[in-house]
Design goal:
With 293 residues, the chain is mainly alpha-helical. Among the domains are: 128 residues, Alpha Horseshoe (Serine Threonine Protein Phosphatase 5, Tetratricopeptide repeat), CATH 1.25.40.10; 63 residues, Serine Threonine Protein Phosphatase 5, Tetratricopeptide repeat (Alpha Horseshoe), CATH 1.25.40. It contains 16 helices and two strands. The protein has a two-stranded antiparallel ribbon with strand order 1-2. Helix 11 packs antiparallel against helix 12. The two termini are 22 Å apart. The relative contact order is 0.08.
Length: 293
């Protein structure tokens, strides 16, 4: 029973729209919609501002980037890309628009184009930690793990207070079988952000791999206390219970995991194994081999 990461990568780091709201946006009330996360209202308000003809070139660019962020939050990545592109026509070297367009491209699986945007964003702003983090995520997607590690290192050096960057590097270290180093990153992430459920869940994976099953269970439990929807954390805790011979507790978690995702075939198999161990299910194995039905 291998343990799977609960969350592989934190969402790509976007630019907060409220960091760059032009005067026209403020006058039209768009900033308030952005601040409360009402992205439908934000798109509507920003659209009216953009189409009003009242914004100067700088505010028009800012409004386009902000609407792009709102579209991205709504999952409308093509419209987001169009807005970022229009903003870049006004200010071609805008590192924020380049970074955010890269994120939208990456969300659509277009990592080659995304990498080009991240490269331009970093060239325009060499200390842009978000762009290094985002480029690392894209590099992982195309199998360039060494380059991704260098980008995570750079992002952390530039922004040592980011729990997300340390979390992302920890995930890459788990995938690279560097479990002790991954633990250090998760520990650092949790010192910075003590209520980070995915960091607890993934630290549990590293601990379980290093055979610290009690520590893994404690981490999975913390993760689930913060976010009961973390399916892999519950399934992983069941695996840890099972490895410790605590099959009744394992069964309880597997039942809950299957209630949240009845299509999880591995959880169904693990449940059958646990039921057999408890003497409550059909015989599945004999001398280490599956028994034919």
């Amino acid at each position: 029973m291998g343990h799977a990461l609960a969350v592989l990568i934190v969402l790509f780091a976007t630019s907060s729209p409220i960091e760059r709201v032009g005067h026209g946006d403020l006058e039209s009330g768009c900033a308030a919609a952005v601040r409360r996360g009402d992205w439908v209202a934000a798109v509507d308000c920003l659209s009216r501002a953009i189409e009003s003809g009242a914004l100067d070139r700088a505010d028009q660019s800012v409004a386009l980037v902000n609407r792009g962020v709102a579209y991205a939050e709504l999952g409308n990545f093509e419209s987001a890309i169009a807005d970022y592109t229009n903003a870049l026509e006004l200010f071609p070297g805008d590192s924020i628009a380049l970074n955010d367009r890269g994120n939208a491209l990456a969300a659509l699986g277009r990592c080659t184009a995304a990498l080009a945007d991240y490269n331009m964003a970093i060239a325009a702003k060499p200390d842009y930690a978000k762009a290094y983090n985002n480029r690392a995520n894209c590099l992982i997607a195309i199998g360039r793990r060494k380059d991704a590690m260098e980008d995570f290192d750079r992002a952390i050096a530039l922004m040592p207070g980011s729990a997300n960057y340390r979390f992302n590097r920890g995930n890459l270290r788990v995938e690279s079988h560097e479990y002790a180093e991954a633990l250090e990153d998760y520990d650092s992430a949790l010192r910075l952000h003590p209520s980070f459920p995915a960091a607890y869940a993934n630290r549990g994976v590293a601990r379980a791999t290093l055979k610290d099953l009690e520590g893994a269970i404690a981490d999975y439990s913390r993760a689930l206390a913060f976010d009961p929807r973390l399916h892999n954390a519950r399934h992983n805790r069941a695996k840890a219970y099972s490895e410790l011979g605590l099959n009744a507790l394992a069964l309880e978690d597997l039942e809950a995991a299957l209630a949240s995702d009845p299509t999880d075939t591995e959880a169904h198999m693990d449940r059958a194994i646990v039921l057999e161990r408890l003497g409550a299910g059909p015989r599945m194995f004999e001398n280490g081999r599956p028994v034919a039905p």
